[in-house]
Amino acid sequence: APDSDGGSEELVLTPAQLIRSLEQAWLNEKFAPELLESKPEIIECVVEQLDHMEANLKRAKKGDLKVSVHHMEIERIRYVLSSYLRCRLVKIEKFFPHVLEKEKSRAEGEPSILSPEEFAFAKEYMANTETYLKNAALKHMPPNLQKVSLLKSVPKPNLDSFVFLRVLERQENILVEPETDEQREYTIDLEEGSQHLIRYKTIAPLVASGAVQLI
After folding, report:
1. Whole-prediction pTM value?
2. Where in the cell is it found (predicted)?
């Protein structure tokens, strides 16, 4: 809905488009080596859609074949949604100091990679980790060794890993390999519908913009 000044509009999606958006976010999150931008609007709308579908099922006639079909669709959507959220939590637990550092250094107006609930979880997880390390090991160490940098101790996401992708929007002159002493600069065009195996950090901005889909 437009805001009070009429300066912005909410994107309206059909139920089918909404589910496709969820599936796209799920696949991107599943195959990307780093935690991607949070999609709270999609999650909220999907939950509302599921509630609406379940309400419709309660009003349907028992024994109607459509009831079984719609019930299976609800379970499928719930699986995708829970898998998406679970994948994000696994990444937060795995990369929590880097996730929090990225969130802290985020420029004003830049999309957050964490929902408010995920941000609270990440902070609590970091605090619990620090407390455990202190009580289990650090307090028994010499004073000069009782501090540890989690940013240095916890591995970063491997942005140099390779990912499979499908091109949704044609892209030109994508820099695949920068120029070095051993090789010249290498760029390619990505044709719509084509599939590629490419280093993730090369196409990370295209994943964020929705121009490509990880598969």
Report:
1. 0.85
2. Chromosome; Nucleus
